[in-house]
Amino acid sequence: MTQERTPTTQPAGAPEPEPIRWFGTSWVERGGDYRLRRVLVPLGALLAAAAGAFVLRLAVDGIRVADNGGFLNGLLVAAVAICSLLAALRTWKLLTEGRDALTGWMAEDKSLGVVWVIGGVGSLLAYFLRALREAPGEALHRARYEKALAQHDRRQAGRGGRPGNGAPGRAKRKR
User: Which residues does the annotated region (Disordered) include (predicted)?
Assistant: First the structure.
C-alpha cells in the first residue's frame, strides 16, 4: 500500500500544492469535499453556459428584429459560432496544457478579448466537458506538484535528511 502525501503531512520546506479555482487544494487528497465540488462545478458551468446562450439568443433576435436581411443574420450567427469554437479550443488547451503552451493567436489576451467574450459560451462548455473528467487543470497541477515533491525528496536524500548538512562526501569549507 502506498502512502499518499497531503499538504498537511509534509515536512517543513516541502513544496505546497497550487490551488485550483473552485477546488482549492482539495484535489491533492480527493476527499469528500472534492467529490462534492466535482459534481457542482460542471453543473454550474453548464447552467452558466445555458444563461450565456440565452443572452446571445436575445442579442441575435434583437438584430433579427431590425430586419436587416438574411445574409446579415447568417453572418452574425456564424460569427458567434466561430467565436465560441475558438474560445472553447483555447480554454481546452489552457486546462490541459497550461498557459505556457498557448502560442500564436491563442496567447493573445488583449487584441482578441472581444472574441473571448463573445465565445464565452464555448469556453464554458469546454470547462464543463473538462470538469466531467477531472477538476479543470488538475492533471497539470498534479504533474507540477509531484515533480516538485520528487525534487524536494532528492534534495533531502542528498543531505542525508539532516538540514544544514551538505551532500555526503562533501567537506565543509573552512573560512
Answer: 151-175
